[in-house]
Backbone:
């Protein structure tokens, strides 16, 4: 479903701020893979997601999604078949629009627009049923402005909006990092539910090593713009945080220094 071939990206080349973010990165995801991504600060995790989404263009390499070369495809065109949830709960929704209006925008992503009522009665009922699955009482708040919802509620809604059209690839960029532990667990539980029900191919960046081990069928660890550890299946299930730290030191020759990952 996803192929990254020899992807390299350098920011501010030729200046004192030059930063090699991705270094000849190669990654292949099969249909239905749920891959968690862990790594220290500056490992290249978010740059990788941004390049897949079309926010940045790679300096070198090729990006294929479902066999189609999208390397030079602009971000807005990729949005029709990609779903994305950001770290900041304020992103991904329009705060001044009603909940049902936000859902309607997501529902129509990539589809032709026509002159008709923005939200039909049947669609409104469908949105209520979708929101009931979140178990947050939002099905009774369709006309509430999204900006009045809590951070956790907004992130759950954003996740729903990103998955409602069954994207070819779902990108989750530390989407629980800004939430309290109880709310983060709720959003992660919903993530597992949506990904499993629709067999969504998913890349989830997380700062929490325990979450990286507990979720998904495959785990990759990045350092200095490269993948230094890739594990899946039964081997992944046997992992512990201590084993991950040992693997990082063995592969990189340095100690893992991300306090967020260790304390998470």
Residues:
């Amino acid at each position: 479903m996803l192929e990254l071939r020899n992807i390299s990206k350098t920011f501010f080349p030729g200046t004192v701020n030059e930063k090699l973010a991705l270094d000849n990165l190669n990654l292949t995801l099969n249909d239905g893979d749920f891959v968690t991504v862990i790594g220290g600060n500056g490992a290249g995790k978010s740059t990788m997601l941004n390049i897949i989404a079309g926010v940045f263009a790679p300096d070198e390499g090729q990006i294929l999604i479902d066999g189609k070369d999208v390397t030079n495809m602009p971000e807005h065109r990729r949005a029709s078949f990609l779903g994305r949830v950001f770290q900041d709960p304020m992103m991904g929704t329009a705060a001044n629009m009603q909940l049902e209006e936000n859902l309607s925008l997501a529902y129509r992503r990539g589809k032709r627009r026509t002159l008709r009522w923005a939200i039909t009665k049947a669609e409104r009922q469908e949105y209520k049923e979708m929101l009931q699955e979140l178990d947050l009482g939002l099905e009774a708040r369709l006309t509430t402005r999204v900006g009045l919802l809590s951070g956790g509620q907004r992130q759950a809604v954003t996740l729903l909006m990103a998955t409602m059209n069954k994207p070819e690839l779902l990108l989750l960029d530390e989407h629980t990092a800004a939430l309290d532990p109880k709310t983060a667990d709720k959003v992660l539980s919903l993530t597992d539910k949506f990904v499993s029900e629709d067999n969504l191919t998913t890349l989830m960046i997380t700062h929490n090593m325990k979450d990286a081990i507990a979720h998904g069928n495959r785990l990759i660890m990045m350092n200095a713009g490269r993948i230094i550890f890739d594990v899946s299946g039964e081997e992944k299930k046997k992992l512990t945080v201590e084993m991950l730290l040992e693997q990082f030191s063995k592969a990189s020759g340095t100690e893992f220094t991300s306090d967020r990952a260790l304390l998470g």
